[in-house]
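All the exercises in this workshop are built on plain-text protein records. The record below serves as our worked example for the rest of this section.
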Amino acid sequence: MTWKDRLAGTTAPELAREIDIFETQIDLKKQGKVEDRLFAETRLRRGVYGQRYDNGQRHDGVGVRALRFPAETLTKGPETLWDAPGMQRIKIPFGGLTPEQMGVLADISEEYSDGICHVTTRQDIQLHYVHIEDTPDLMRRLAAVGITTREACGNSVRNVTACPIAGVCREESFDVSAYARACAKFLLGHPDTQDFGRKFKVAFSGCQHRACGLVSMHDLGFIARTRWNDGVPQRGFEVYVGGGLGAVPYQAKLFDEFVPEQEILPLAQAISRVFARLGEKRNRGRARIKFLLEKLGIEAFRELVLAERAALPEDDRWTALIRDATMQAPSSPTPAGVGPSDAPAPGLRSWQATNVYAQKQAGYAVVTVTLPLGDATAWQMRRLADLARRYAGGDVRTTVEQNIVLRFVAERDVPALHRALADIGLGEIGAGAISDVTACPGTDTCKLGIASSRGLAGELRQRLSAKFEGLDPAVQGLHIKISGCFNSCGQHHLADLGFYGVSRKVAGTTVPHFRVVLGGQWEKNAGSYGLTIGAVPSKRIPDLVERLTQKYLSEREVQEPFRDFIGRIGKQALKPLLDELAVVPPYQVDRSFYSDWRDPREFTVSDIGTGECAGQVVSRIDFDLQSAERRYFESQLHYDRGDYRLADDTAYAAMLEAAQALIRTQFQDMSGEPDTVVGEFRARFCDTEVFYDVYAGAKFAHYLLARHADRDRRYSQERARLLIEETQLFIEAAYACHTRLLEKGPQGRIPSMAATPAAHP
């Protein structure tokens, strides 16, 4: 019997029908009857991604594990969708899992993937190295236990996230789980969510002050609130819109201080309709709802949404889905305890301090299972399912910190559960602490990855775990988050110490680097974002973490949080430390800098020539781009001092300088007057699409063009912060463009324009 036959009658007919349609589309695509662009969005909306391939190995942060797929399948990378496996994302609304679902995830990870279930920073599960022809059967097996991959990717409403301890938190207003479940079900496949220009992310939080749902970084966020009317409590939500990370992070804006619970679904529908109608469609770099908010302003946006809400036809599901979801919530804790355990495993006390949280229900605890880099093997996932049945009544959640929590564990059973977790290799301490490093897939599997985020995360995790108990509690509580590129999938903007991958040319060779982002705020639902202060070679990041934390401990004021410390001493005081670590030794002196963490390969070693260690030839563009970096840094100092106008103007000047640096590689005698610089840059690098030939080049070019066109600039703190972020990305793109031109050789320099002004308006 096929999985298609087994699914019949076990789930909603429309879900089975959708999978059948997707399977047909795959067949039509193989026959060349479906346009590439259309099929790409079709498969993405089913959670099916292409992925990156290098040498047929996956770097798991601990070692290099060979795949079960033949190396020859992967070495050259897939030329078409069918040449090699990809990635399957699986939606887990609010992170809620059952032991039965965990067992199916374990089975399909072994049968269709590499045997690893990866928890993402949005509470999803991802499987890598999945063949697209296997995905329909994989989806049917998931559907049979109530899991869908629909709209896990693409221009759609992504997984609805929520606080993993909702319902058991001692400080929450009320349990938001039912509301997150209802919202996920209501928006899934809704007609009003099918015409977005980009993705749309929703989150729920039970309180204001903890990280919980990270509402401030979401397109639409809900924070639970209770108000009293004539002595009667009324549930509702504080609603935020227009947040988002990505290359330039935006803080969500307050839409309404209190929206009654029965209004949250129609409000979400009205916001979706406005976004679908007015959101950008052509320029993907400006297509998130945060840009629509920036364009309209929160007041005008609110008026449009409220008008849309008033025009909506009544829908019984607005209240029915919340009522049904509330009825599904557990009404009482599991029976207290399963009996005495053997002698405690070593390290129980330390583990309890970081991984066990006392619930508001007396006698019960939440246990966080620390997953190294978010990974659990199929065998571990099955054992976790068994432990969830035995000790937690099957109540399981994934977390945005890439871990798994077991809820309603009787306190008397905690020692036995710890021993059982240690027996399967999941008894590590430090959940949510400095050693629990968050990382996106990076260069392991992501096509956009620039540096090995997982490799660096694995190295930091290993070093910090080894000395965790000896660290000062103030350092233990810090957060480290790493992204392989600027897109912030590792949420580096929210970390105390954040890093994202970039690259630099050193003596003609590409060297992996990470941009350093300091001072983000994880708490208060992603209360504020950090700013970058420079780039450091990948191999020097562990040294930087050690020196920064030592400096914090030796120079902080009493009870001063790390974020406040960074703000107080300022970036000027940190720059010498970064400058010292930014030096890359010549290849002949130390080859380790020319490869990334946990990756045995070297970066473009073939183009290294014999040279003198005493000196190197440095081109003018290297000096010019460094000058742009200096001016960018100065803009941050002006920002820190509260001079937002000067910060804004200096950041703009830094972009002009970076653009001029590129232009001078073709036209030495150009004027530095802004109109001339922008005109030459547009003609030589935008109209020719030379600048667009690097990651997100079109979007980053827009940052300069838009700022230059803004002749009646309105200065503000927020605008200055956004422009500073955009400037740093523009400079990185200038570096990448220069590197690409060097790799192309003389033909990349556009010789017909090399010595004369470009023709431009």
Q: What stands out?
A: The domain at 3-143 is CATH 3.30.70 (Alpha-Beta Plaits). The first helix runs from residue 3 to 7.
